[in-house]
Every structure is written in structure tokens, then in C-alpha cells.
Amino acid sequence: MSRPSRVVTEATQAFTFSRRAFALGAMQGGMGLLLAGRMAWLAVAENEHYELMAESNRVNMTLVPPRRGWIVDRNGAPIANNRTDFRVDIIPDRLENPARVLGVLRDLLALPAEDMERIETDLKRSRGLQPVQVAENLPWERYAALSVRLPDLPGVVPARGFSRNYPMGAAVAHLTGYVGAASAEQYQETKDRLLITPGFKLGKDGLEKTLEVRLRGVPGEKRVEVTARGEPVRELATRPDRPGQTVRLTIDAGLQEYAARRLGTNSGAAVVIDCLTGDILAMVSMPAYDPNSFSDGIGRLEWKMLSEDDHIPLMNKVLQGLYPPGSTVKPMNALALLQAGVHPQETVFCSGAMRVGTGVFHCHKRGGHGPTNMRRAVAQSCDIYFYEMARRFGYDMFAKVARSLGLGQTFDLPFSSQRYGTMPDSAWKLKKYGKPWTVADSLNASIGQGYVLANPLQLAVMASRLASGRALQPRLLLNGRAPTAPLLSATPEQMAIVRDSMFAVVNDGGTGGAARMQVPGVTIAGKTGSAQVRRITMAERRSGVLSNAQLPFKLRDHALFICFSSADNPRYAAGIVLEHNAHLIRNLDTPIIARDIFTYLYDKERAMKSLAEFEPTWGGDIATRMRAEAAAFQAANAAAQVAPAPATVDTPEAVGNAVDAAIANQAVPEGDVAQSNTSRSPE
């Protein structure tokens, strides 16, 4: 069926037109309202945003790096401060005709070929506006000569500011750490413009890194009115930076520098602690790097020299070096025996060797010590006495006392890493190796060998607790008064017996007589120690044990010493560890080093006189020796082909990798020293 056609009248057409006109008008009105609303939003709500954008087109604002807070010693002497610095950087995105600009910079600033190679390499690796350092610490004349050429050098940014300075150089390197430019990864993580501001550096290691928030400060702002083409018109008001906080340490800067110099050519560490408060007065790891070089951007040859040095100058041996403590544990073991009920006059006959099962354990004195009581065992460092006691009582008892004295412990100090070593017992071995503890393990541990490992700080803490009778906690930040440490579980009578045995080590015919003080009225109590780093076979014993002087450096014994003074009224305690020192050179050995360090605390003039006598025989002071070593290394590598690499190797990853490699190569595998019939504890 067909649908009837629709009749369109004039009225219908008018209605349809009106309806469509209304809809179109409504749409136009809606669009108008939207546009008006958007204009109102931009003009009112977004006014500040766009005003700032317009202002940024008119005003070029750059951040001014804040001055870092100082690090000072307990008396206010600077350990890390700031110095005026003239520097030049390049902003890669603003650089035009790089070859011409670099040529001008080379001539104006007298840049060596090594620096030019480093700048070119850094420019290839750079990103956007992240600055590339050209030179730091420029003389005023060269800085001024460059400043007048700036219109011809787009992308070159000279700046006058402050750079980090370490007045004592290598003596505080492992204490303070160093600063350096932020990495691209650090900027990508935070997007903080300060990190890519020319001249800004942040902490990369040590206290500079862990105290970064306190030391950084607040950046300032420099505002310059510019044309549409970016040409400067005039300087506007500048907001000054706000310096970081000053951090005060418990360190005595004079003692720190003296101890570093007194270690001489040794590879090792020394820690001095106040027995009244637990304050760390000196914390030295040597050899070390110059933190000023790292902060300025270390050259690749200097980095190569440091990373290949078998004395491991990049490692903080105070906290990261682990060593068998050797005979330094004997006073501690004597305390454990007293607490177990052993009478101090009870004797053990030392014939020079002890057979246990099929093994033979030797004393360091081949002919033996004869009848030996506790005092003589500590003073003469008799191994057989402690072997016999460990066989009777087992080692778990000793381990408990060792932990109470600080071995195997970490401490609340502002450093990112501490290696706490090993204080073993039967439960520890079963858990770690799935094997039961043996008598041989007890004998080895009783003389500080076998599985026992400690760092120099722990040894200094052990000395301070033996001296004070309190569980002192070492502290490095001088924040108010130190809390009173609790007493140890030992009785005053037991502590007096142990201290008397340590007095005998130095002052009554013991093994540490070289430490005897030359200051009237002051005495040292201490304990020497040696720690093997190699296995001595029975075949070698039959043919004659090689002396340390016959061995290469890495196979020689470590030399150790713990001590406190004055013996009758302890105020200071110290722990000293010298890698592969082997007690070969008297004025570089632990007892006489300890004597001079303590002498500095009581009579500085006498201590400096002793240092002046010895230091020339070692090749001069620290800086002189480092310059001589650098010159010799540079001469030896002058003809060698060095692989291209950036000259500024200042990343913590590079340092960390070098330290990890050094740790992995330490010649003391756990439980692989002085086992069974190869044990000895040389003094």
C-alpha cells in the first residue's frame, strides 16, 4: 500500500526554519559562553602562571649554587671549608661551532691536551643543558681574559663562586669523602635544576654524602633582563644563597693530621677514642687520595695510579678493612677466663707446641715459655696458654665476651657502609657452613685467627672498653653531651687484673716495650698482635719457615696494636692495624707509632720532634710523597697507550667498584688461616 505524500505548507516551513535557527543560535551561544569562560579562566585563574611565563621571556633567571656548610673539628678548626673559585663551563645546547670555541678556550686558558680530550669526550656524552666543566680554580688574569671574549663564545659560561676545600688533604680523605658534579641519572631521578647548575657539587662519599641534607644549603637566584633574542639588558635584584649548616665533629684535627703522617709509608689505619665519652678523636686510613683532586675532577692517570695501587688508597680501612685480630684478643680472652672462674695465678706449661689429635699447634716462641700464668701469657703473648684454656672451656664463652667488647658489632656512625667482620661460635659455624665446631676452631680463634675478623674501629672500641670498664659507644658528631655508658658485666677486680697484664706488655718485659712513653708520669698499657695471611705447611716447617722479610708484600703478616693511656688512669684508647707490616721496620711498627700518637696528646712538641726525625727517611710528608709517586707513575706511563676515558672519574660507582675489587682480593679467607698443624701467632 502506497504511503500518502506529505504536504509542506508555508507554516510548516516557517516552523522548521525557526526550530533550526534556534538550535544553531543555542550552539553559537554555548560556544560563546565557552570562549568567554576560557578567556576568564586564562585572564583570572591562570593569570599568575602566564605572567610568570611572560616574565621568564623577559628575565633570564639562573640558580646560584649554595655554599656548602663547613665541617669543623671539636675545637672549630676547619676540616672541610670553601674557597673562592673562578671556573668556566660549557652548556652544550648553546654551543655554536664547537671546534672554534674549544680552540679559543685552549689558547686563553692554556689547557693541556689531556684536559682538551676530556672536554671533547664529556661533550659527546653530555645531555642538553647539563654543563660540561672546562676548568676550575682559574687565576684571575685568565678568567678576566676570557670574560672580555664572551660575545664571541656562545655557550661558554664563566662563573665566580665557591669550591670545596680540604686543608689537610689526604689526611681526612676517608673521613670527609669528597664532592662532585651530579650524574645524569641523579638529575633524571629528581629533575632538580640545581643539579645541572654550573658549579654545583654534591657529596659523593664519606661525611659529604651522608650529611648532604645538612651541608647543601639553599640556592640563590640571579635575574637578568634580556631582549627577545636573549641579549642581556640589565641585572635585576638577586636573591642570595643560604649556606649549609656547619657540622662539628668529635675529631681533633691536629691529632688526625699527626696520626696520618705518623703512619708513614704503611698501608693501614689508626683510631683514637676518648675513654670518658666515646668520642672518636682520630680516624685515619692510609694511604689515601687527595679529596681536593676528586672534587676538582681527577685525571685519568691519577685514577689509574690509585686504582692499581696494592696499598688500596681508595678503601676506608677503618670501617671496610677486615683483619684477623691476632694476639690483640688475648686481654679480652683473659677477661673471659676470669669471668669463668680461672684464677690468674693458675699456670700452663708452654713447651712451644701442643698436639691436638693428629695436629700440632705451635707457639710463636719455638722453645716455649715454660710455666705461664695469665699475666705472663698476655705480656709474653703465649699461645699455648690460650690454646689450653680454649680446649678446656670451648670458644662460645670467649665469643660472648668479645661481642660485649665490640667485636662483630656495627656502630651508629654517619657512614654509608661498615663491614662488621666475624665473631664466630658453634651456632654461627653450623648455620653458615652446616658443620660442627671443632677443638681446632677453638684453638685458632683463641689467638685471633681462623674465622675471627675485625675492623680497626672495633679494635679501638675493644681497647676503650677494657680501659674504661664501660660499654662505650663511639660517636663522631659532637651533638651535646655524650650519654653515660653502662658498666660491663666484669667486676672492677677482674678489669684491674686485665689492665695490669696489658701494662706488663709495654712496661714489664712484654712484647710491646717499644711503646714505652717518654713523657714523665704517663704510661701505656697495650697488646701487640700479628696475624698470618698465608698457610704454613709442615713441609715448610721442616725445611725452615720463611721470614716475613723473604716474602712479597701481600704474603707478610699484618701488625696490630691496641692500647690505652695512662695505664693507671685511662683517658685515651687506640687501635692500630698495619697491613703486611710484619714488624719489619722499627720506626714504622705499631708500638712506636702508638707511643708517638699518645705523646702528641700529652706533649705535642716532643711528638713533632719525633716525627721530624723519622719523616725524611720515608721520603717526606704525605703531600711530598704523593707528588713523587705521581711523577714516577706518569713517567712510567708516558710511553704506554692509555685507553680513552673521561678524565673526571669522580662517580661513587667507580670508587665503589675499585674498593669491592680490593675487598675481594684481601688475603684473609674466613677459616683458611692457621688451621690444624699450621698455627702460629708471631710477635
Write up what this structure looks like.
The protein has 683 residues and is α+β, with helices and mostly antiparallel strands. The chain contains 26 helices and 19 strands. The strands form 6 sheets. Strands 2, 3, 4, 5 and 10 form a 5-stranded mixed beta sheet that branches. The longest helix has 36 residues, at 10-45. It is elongated.
Short description:
With 683 residues, the protein is of the alpha+beta class. It is 40% helix and 15% strand. Its main location: membrane.
Topology of this structure?
Elements (H helix, E strand, L loop, with lengths): L9 H36 L1 H12 E6 L6 E2 L5 E13 L7 H12 L3 H13 L6 E4 L4 H8 L8 E10 L7 H4 L2 E2 L3 H7 L11 E2 L2 H5 L1 H5 L3 E7 L5 E4 L11 E2 L4 H10 L5 E7 L5 E7 L4 H6 L3 H9 L8 H4 L9 H10 L8 E3 L2 E4 L2 E4 L7 E3 L1 H6 L3 H11 L2 H9 L21 H8 L5 H8 L9 H13 L23 H16 L16 E8 L6 H6 L14 E8 L6 E7 L11 H13 L1 H11 L7 H15 L15 H13 L19
Parallel strand pairs: 2-10
Antiparallel strand pairs: 1-8, 2-3, 3-4, 3-5, 6-7, 8-9, 11-12, 11-19, 13-16, 14-15, 17-18, 18-19
Helix pairs in contact: 10-23, 14-17, 14-21, 16-19, 23-24
Subcellular location: Cell membrane; Membrane
Keywords: Carboxypeptidase, Cell inner membrane, Cell membrane, Cell shape, Cell wall biogenesis/degradation, Hydrolase, Membrane, Peptidoglycan synthesis, Protease, Transmembrane, Transmembrane helix
Protein name: Penicillin-binding protein 2
